[in-house]
Model the fold of this input.
Amino acid sequence: METELAIPGFVNAALLVFVVLAVTDFVKAALPGDLDPRFTPLLALLVAVGAVFAVAESDWGGAQMVGDVSLAAMNVWSKLIVAVLLVGGAATADKVLNAVRNVGENQGSRPPTE
Done:
């Protein structure tokens, strides 16, 4: 008897968010010089669109459910909306990760005096 491991939708969404973060950071690191911070959201959107379409076309795409529709069955506009939501999730995750990295960084310093 074959059993199938069911991964909750939240975990799949979190994996896609972290894929967007990782690939965006990779592309930023691969580019020569510093990327203007204004272009980072555009880069993240392009990465998210690529990730959504790649996953939708993979064997894994039929198992990725958004509501009651699989990613593989979605039309182009629905996939673009999912990509935009992924970018929002990635931006939020990036802010949280940066806040956690910076915890305690200012310990020992005095607040500014007037």
Observations:
- The first helix runs from residue 9 to 30.
- The chain is about 60% helix and 5% strand.
